[in-house]
Write a sequence for this structure.
């Protein structure tokens, strides 16, 4: 009965959206502007989505992490309902009682599973997105972490993903220029792959080997993986979430730069993309190194064209004119070839986003990020971002990048951000060199915009 009620609530989303659109026609007939009606529809639809997604228990934690960025884009007076829904999403994971844990362990490792351990703590040491972690001692005396999936967790997530597919069309109200079904499918595939503990163990083995004896990072080794249980080395350290709350500014910046270094180095060292860089997956070890855990959300790095996409867009944004930016956006399917839009507005938006890349050092803050998210998500029909889209294949990168950016801003990271990026992507290094040669330092972004401004061909300047 509970599942049927939940599914009915989720099914109500498209119906309610259609009703709002019909009501909007009437309001326009009574004199309301299209922009006013569009704003009202978007806000009410967003609020309904957040409320109903609170019913999705299987994907609760993942949704909370992803949707928290949308909450950043809301004015304070509108954000409270969304924060409440996010709290519900992130706090909804149940705690398995010892009897349930023992049953799950027996199913994965056999009825005599305890013989593998000298000690096993029945109390949950930490939560995971679809399971929980227990502290134990392996039979050879090593301290280990035992990650156990919730019974029925896999089916719950798969069911929730089906529901998300059904309602994903509503995302078009926020991003009509995006191939929403393709992006949704890419996101669903990424989340579904996190249900495969065998693949997660393989990912962690690859990272542990690549970063063995690294002076900056520690990845705990995998002891064994059986069914829906993974046993890894225990990592003792301070969670980054605690550093965010009470750490000294210098230490927050140091750790933020380490997180960035780890993420940008993964493509050359493992060929894998780490997609889940939220604070709970990082630990600060006593010797100062950064420990990294939870490798369920890993995918192969995007195709070779991905680096070309980033280089072309940033080169056009930093060193080109609006016409060159338009050509790059169309060439990489950021804009549909047949669509007209305000490319100067896109150039101005890129100035905002690229600000950390125009200076030798930069300080990221939540206020800085909030301003940019609000700009991107502003519920205006004239918002140029509504006309843009991203190729579905870079959805995992977008997820990881946005999550990491939020963490770096929470840490108020200050440092040579662009040097870290340039160190792992030679093409970007050349872009930054050209920018410095052309504009000099320190950079004044208003001057940079003037340098780039050029007459825009009429076919680029029409807003649809």
């Amino acid at each position: 009965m509970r599942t049927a009620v939940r599914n009915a609530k989720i099914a109500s989303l498209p119906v309610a959206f259609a009703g709002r659109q019909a009501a909007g026609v009437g309001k326009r007939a009574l004199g309301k502007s299209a922009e006013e009606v569009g704003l009202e529809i978007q806000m009410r639809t967003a609020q309904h989505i957040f409320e109903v997604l609170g019913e999705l228990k299987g994907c609760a934690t993942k949704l909370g992490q992803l949707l928290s960025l949308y909450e950043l884009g809301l004015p304070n007076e509108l954000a409270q309902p969304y924060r409440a829904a996010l709290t519900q999403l992130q706090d909804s994971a149940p705690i398995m009682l010892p009897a349930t844990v023992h049953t799950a362990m027996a199913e994965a490792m056999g009825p005599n599973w305890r013989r593998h351990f000298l000690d096993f703590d029945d109390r949950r040491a930490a939560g995971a997105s679809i399971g929980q972690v227990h502290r134990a001692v392996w039979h050879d005396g090593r301290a280990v972490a035992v990650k156990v999936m919730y019974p029925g967790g896999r089916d719950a997530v798969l069911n929730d993903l089906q529901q998300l597919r059904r309602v994903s069309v509503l995302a078009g109200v926020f991003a009509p220029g995006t191939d929403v079904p393709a992006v949704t499918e890419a996101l669903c595939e990424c989340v579904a792959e996190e249900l495969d503990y065998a693949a997660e163990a393989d990912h962690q083995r690859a990272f542990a080997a690549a970063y063995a004896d690294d002076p900056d990072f520690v990845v705990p080794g995998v002891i064994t993986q059986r069914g829906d249980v993974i046993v890894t080395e225990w990592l003792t350290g301070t969670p980054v979430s605690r550093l965010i709350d009470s750490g000294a500014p210098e230490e927050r910046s140091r750790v933020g730069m380490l997180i960035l270094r780890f993420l940008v180095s993964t493509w050359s060292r493992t060929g894998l993309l780490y997609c889940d860089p939220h604070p709970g997956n990082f630990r600060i070890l006593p010797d100062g190194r950064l420990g990294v855990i939870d490798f369920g959300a890993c995918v192969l790095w995007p195709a070779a064209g991905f680096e070309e996409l980033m280089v072309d867009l940033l080169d056009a944004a930093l060193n080109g004119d609006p016409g060159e930016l338009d050509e790059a956006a169309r060439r990489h399917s950021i804009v549909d070839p047949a669509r007209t839009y305000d490319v100067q507005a896109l150039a101005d938006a890129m100035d905002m986003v690229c600000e950390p890349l125009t200076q030798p050092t930069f300080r990221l803050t939540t206020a800085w990020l909030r301003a940019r998210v609000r700009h991107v998500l502003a519920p205006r029909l004239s918002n140029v971002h509504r006309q843009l889209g991203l190729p579905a294949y870079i959805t995992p990168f977008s997820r990881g990048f946005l999550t990491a950016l939020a963490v770096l801003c929470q840490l108020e990271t200050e440092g040579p951000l662009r040097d870290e990026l340039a160190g792992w992507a030679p093409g970007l290094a050349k872009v930054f060199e050209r920018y410095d040669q052309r504009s000099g330092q320190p950079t004044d972004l208003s001057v940079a915009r003037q340098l780039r401004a050029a007459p825009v061909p009429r076919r680029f300047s029409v807003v649809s």
